[in-house]
Amino acid sequence: MSTIVKVDRLTKSYKDIDAVKDVSFTLEENKIYGMLGRNGAGKTTIMHLLTAQIFPTGGDIQVFGEAPYENDRVLSRICFIKESQKYPTTFAVRDVLEVAAGLFPKWDREFAYSLVEDFRLPLKRKMTKLSRGMLSAVGIIVGLASRAPLTIFDEPYLGLDAVARSLFYDRLLEDYAEHPRTIVLSTHLIDEVSRMLEHVILIDGGKLLLDEEAEQLQGRAYTVVGSSSKVESFAAGKRVLARESMGGLTTVTVMGGAGSDDRKQALTLGLEMAPVTLQQLVVHLTGGKPEHKEAKAQ
Amino acid sequence: MVVKQKMSVLIDDSRPIFMQIAERIENDIIEGRLAEESQVPSTNQFAAFYQINPATAAKGVNQLVDQGILYKKRGIGMFVAEGSRARLLENRKEQFYEQYVVTMVREAEKLGITAEQLSEMIRRGERSQ
Amino acid sequence: MTTNRMQGVIRLHMKDKMNWLVTPWIVVLCSFAVNLVISQFMEADLYTGGVASLYIYMLVIGIVTLTHTFPFAIGFNVRRKDYFWGTLVAAGGASLYSAVILTLLSYVEYDLTDGWGSGLNFFHLPYLSDGSLFVQLVVSFLLILNLFYTGFFITGIFKRFGRAGLFTFAIALLILGTVFSFIMTQQEWWVNVIDWFNAHTMFEFTLWTLPVTVVFMLLSYAMLRRATA
């Protein structure tokens, strides 16, 4: 697998705040990545840095083997769909698609218009008159139809309902299968996308917290329930992410290899074991309650 | 546009997804939904069907190829190997013994159930079916 | 590849033909219509500066374009360089388009209809429209382009240095302007300025705006290179 993005000790500071600090990771060709983390963790900043829309304070970025700034060989191969994308006020949906067709070398016009039908977008309507969900749909269509070798979706579906989101996942997977490319998904709805991800990069407080294959993360953490004394003896020496007690019962969420050794130990102690989803793991690791940005936006 | 009923509910998070994909194919073969020498859906079809990453689906399928349950026809696709149902059944029976019988016997011992009582229980279980 | 994406930027601007090509002429023609009606009731020839609305409109387009299209283009991964050159082509084209129409109308007004039959001097004005048709074309083109880049430059300051930067620039300009006109008055140099205009044709004056336009362009480009959408 060839590496297409190489980020080395990347730092971005605003006055006295480090939005991104010493982050290093690589992205490989034709994989689906999840870039996860809480609001303001620095994900969006990293994506803006990757596409040279803002400038790093320190560190190095190589995309397709070159620095991205003012580099058309790099920039024309990236499509970055963001929640805050601005459109000219006079533009209708059709105008955006036509301009995008001229900017992305691999643009597939037919695919774009089939997606417009799927998402039931009014082509002639002005961008300023679109609902939040429709605006998101335009971004999704541009991102998919661009077929850019590096396609980044940052919170692509604010305001979209479950049906439209499912449609997005379907089209993404179908098209990805036929036209493999590197995809970076950043979202709060981790449960919905976790099975599509091949690799997870977790950012918290501007720092890299986790950079692992999704499969390895699955089952990395688990929850154990049982009588307090037994649970405590099980948890001893393990990395406990969360602990809750009620009466004589204790629940601990443990980060570990989840190897058969742990499983056996829990079994012999008569403890119940339950897997922790990626979303729960992220919540535990970033030490907060799950966000409800989606709900708020609607 | 018709939204497909998502089969993602058939997958859970307790075990690696590729293993669950392999198991689903195995079950389809054992229960006769996939006949020997018939073509298996492509990894991309699996990926779309379960809304999972195609690489994960491929891993599950490839595991069965490595075991000789499935085989590749160049340019055509993936097929169920001859005799794979019998082999799978054999494997499953072995697993059944390991997973259920051994644990059952161990638990029975703990509770002081004799072998005679145990086989009586099994017969009773059969009757109640 | 490079030219492709520059063309993409030109296409992006041309999606807004209304703004570039139609609206300015609606404004000018409205002003023209009003003046034409008035001139019917006047015995003497009517001289009017209504055509200035076109130039002012181009200044506004220069200001607005950058705000409207730069964040969009950068968001779609266009190089700042391609954005700049694509915009230059679009602005150049639009300036030429309006300059050609202005010149033609000036010809119709002055040479063919003698003030639209009612002594109206709208497109052809003394001193400003002196010279051959070609000279008039160049004068209009350079002036329109100059105003576009004046606007573009102003928004460029805002894009690069933010509200505070634009504010600082405005204050500095105000102070400089005040000091300048104070000195001019003190030294009684205004007369020289009028003399200068008398001694030079409009064409010569317009040529002097060219370096100013180029400086605005270069500064805009330098600012865009470091601007974030």
TrEMBL record, chain A:
<dbReference type="GO" id="GO:0005524">
    <property type="term" value="F:ATP binding"/>
</dbReference>
<dbReference type="Pfam" id="PF00005">
    <property type="entry name" value="ABC_tran"/>
</dbReference>
<keyword id="KW-0067">ATP-binding</keyword>
<dbReference type="InterPro" id="IPR027417">
    <property type="entry name" value="P-loop_NTPase"/>
</dbReference>
<protein>
    <submittedName>
        <fullName>ABC transporter ATP-binding protein</fullName>
    </submittedName>
</protein>
<dbReference type="InterPro" id="IPR003439">
    <property type="entry name" value="ABC_transporter-like_ATP-bd"/>
</dbReference>
<dbReference type="InterPro" id="IPR003593">
    <property type="entry name" value="AAA+_ATPase"/>
</dbReference>
<keyword id="KW-0547">Nucleotide-binding</keyword>
<dbReference type="GO" id="GO:0016887">
    <property type="term" value="F:ATP hydrolysis activity"/>
</dbReference>
<feature type="domain" description="ABC transporter">
    <location>
        <begin position="5"/>
        <end position="230"/>
    </location>
</feature>
TrEMBL record, chain C:
<feature type="transmembrane region" description="Helical">
    <location>
        <begin position="20"/>
        <end position="42"/>
    </location>
</feature>
<keyword id="KW-0472">Membrane</keyword>
<protein>
    <submittedName>
        <fullName>Uncharacterized protein</fullName>
    </submittedName>
</protein>
<keyword id="KW-1133">Transmembrane helix</keyword>
<feature type="transmembrane region" description="Helical">
    <location>
        <begin position="133"/>
        <end position="154"/>
    </location>
</feature>
<feature type="transmembrane region" description="Helical">
    <location>
        <begin position="205"/>
        <end position="224"/>
    </location>
</feature>
<keyword id="KW-0812">Transmembrane</keyword>
<feature type="transmembrane region" description="Helical">
    <location>
        <begin position="83"/>
        <end position="108"/>
    </location>
</feature>
<feature type="transmembrane region" description="Helical">
    <location>
        <begin position="166"/>
        <end position="185"/>
    </location>
</feature>
<feature type="transmembrane region" description="Helical">
    <location>
        <begin position="54"/>
        <end position="76"/>
    </location>
</feature>
